[in-house]
Amino acid sequence: MSQAVKSPTTNRIHFASAGAVRRRPAPATATLVLPAGLATALEELCMLAAYHPDGFTYTPQMEAACQHIADRSSPAAIDACLARASIRERAYITAARAA
Fold first, then answer.
1. Are residues 36 and 68 in contact, defined by beta-carbon separation less than 8 angstroms?
2. Number of separate domains in the chain
């Protein structure tokens, strides 16, 4: 899994390569540059996802930040991500029904 590190003085977020499917060889690190508003929305989204106990509502800015990042992915990476999520969801539902 990638680890994001936000620079304290810019809106650049550096992601260490996680071996994702790519159209060309991945560099050791990739830099994602977001407009300041999207960087702030992404930071808030991450904090809420990690620490909010009851879930939360996505703002339009959060959705835009997610879309901006997702649009950088190749079709194969999108397909692989959706397949992994589908497997996790089915496993979760099966476990919840068994409990």
1. no
2. 1
| Predicted pLDDT at 83 | 94
Domain assignment present for residue 22? The answer is: yes
Q: Which parts of the chain sit beneath pLDDT 70?
A: 1-29
Residue 32: which of 68, 58, 64 has the closest Cα?
Answer: 68
Q: What is residue 29's predicted lDDT score, i.e. its pLDDT?
A: 67
84's enclosing H/E stretch is helix 75-98
Instruction: Kindly report, residue by residue over 48-63, the tens digit of the pLDDT.
Output: 999 998 888 989 999 9
Instruction: Say what the pLDDT of residue 90 is.
Output: 94
Lookup: tokens for 24: 């060309």
- Nearest by Cα to 31 from 43, 48, 14: 14
Residue 13 bridge partners (DSSP): 6, 32
Inside any domain, residue 18: yes
Report d(CA 33, CA 14) in Å as an integer: 9
DSSP state of 12: E
Which tokens go with 62? 């959060």
